[in-house]
Amino acid sequence: MNKALRIYGEVLRLVRRLPADSRPYYAKYARENFVNYRELDDNDPAALHELFLRAYNHSVWVLNKYSVDQAAASKLKEICGGV
């Protein structure tokens, strides 16, 4: 759970790098996704890794969409386990 909270926090930090008019949408989107998966079994490392990988990949996609340097997601990549 601690790792998921760190990833969520880092995703929200990345949202702050987006244009102001798109931040509320992506902040809400991130929250909804983390809430939807909070019941995921902590004892299934494969499922958690897949979820963390999706969080990283989607974050990079959004950063690229808004021409934000992908390197901004390096801390998220580190937290996710070096994806």
From TrEMBL:
It comes from the Eukaryota. This is Complex 1 LYR protein. Belongs to the complex I LYR family. LYRM9 subfamily.
